[in-house]
Amino acid sequence: MNLDFASSYNLADGPFTMISDFVEISDCPTMKERGQVFHSSCPQGIFLLPDNFETAKPDEALRYPPDTPTLRKILLTAGVPLGEFSESPKPTYVVNRSAAWIAPVLFIPAMILISNPAIVSIALNVVSNYITDALKGLSGPKHIKFEVVIERKGGRTYKRIKYNGDPEDIPELSDLIKKLADE
Length: 183
What we know:
By secondary structure, this protein is of the alpha/beta class. It has helices spanning about 5-10, 30-35, 70-75, 110-115, 120-135, 175-180; strands at about 15-20, 25, 40, 45-50, 65, 85, 90-95, 100, 105-110, 145-150, 160-165. A hairpin with a 6-residue loop joins strand 10 (about 145-150) and strand 11. The longest helix is centred in the last third of the chain and has 17 residues, at about 120-135.
């Protein structure tokens, strides 16, 4: 399916925008503060964020979807640089009891968008392929929940994209991510 999410988005739409039945965009004001709490390494890398990133205390375990370690290995194998939280307790993996497959949240720093924008497309394709393969054999429509948080160029503001839909359409978010980063 060729979805054009980027042309549907308008900055004047405000801090929360539903641009399609599949994509919702909102401001993400807590990213800078939370990044300082969980010190990070590899600022030029994409991060796989835990489910409780916005609420966890520094000594609290970070909770990830169960497929996170496998997705991390596949992204690294594809040449996608990944950042890590250097001073956090050992991560835990939470079992999903939803009918939808839930992917870890991707955080894309502005430095990646400036220095290597092609890596965003590679990462989205890897995620899409991994989820599509993971859901093979299931009957009925494939439904996933996937979020991307983007540090806009200039590093002062952040946008969150929530995607609910078919995993094969995840790569279509690439143009929207680039458009949001350039605003």
